[in-house]
Amino acid sequence: MSPSNPRAVYFLMALLLTLSGCGDKSADSSLRSNGRLVSDPQAALIWDETAASEERIERMESLRPPVSREVAEALLYVMKDRTQQTFIMEPDDSVFGYRTVEGSFNQPYERVDLRWTAILAIERLALIQALPDLISALFDEHEVVRHFAARALWRFGSKEGLPILVAGLEGKALSNESANRILKEITGKDFGFATDIGWARKSKAIELYRDYIKTMKPLRPMPRMGENADLDRRVRYHVKILGDHQFLHMEKARRNLGMLGDLATEHIAKALGDKDLGASNQQLRAYAVQALAKIDTPKSRRVIVEVCARDEAPPVRSRAALAMGRMPRDLGYSVLMGMLKDSDESVIIAATRALGAMGGKGAIKALEAQYGESGRSKRWRTMTAFSLVRLGSQDPQFGALLAEIMTKGKPYEKAELADLLTEWKGSTLGWDERVSPEEQPEAIAKWLALFRH
Amino acid sequence: MNSNLRIVLVLSLLGIAVVAYNLVNQEPGKVSIGNPESDKIILPKTDGHGPLLLKSSADCAPCHQEIYDEWKGSHHEFAWLNPEPRRKELSNNFRNKDCIPCHAPRPLIEVGYGDRALERETRREDGVNCFTCHKFKNVMAAANDLSPMAKTAPCNPVPWQPVSRVMLCSPCHDQHKVEQDWLRSKYSQVDSEDYKDCNDCHMPITPGPGTKGGSRKTHRGHGFKGGHDAGILKTAGIVRAVAVKEGDSLADKIATLTKRKWQPKSGTTLKRGVLIEVKNTGTGHNFPSDERHRAVDLYARFLPKNGKPQEAVRLARFRNPYRNEFENINPFKDKPNTALKNTISWAGADVELTQVRILPAFNPDRKVFYPESTQLHAGESRFLWFELPDWGGGVLELTLYYKLQPYLSNEESTEVGRSHVSF
Question: Are residues B188 and B330 in the same domain?
Answer without folding.
Answer: no
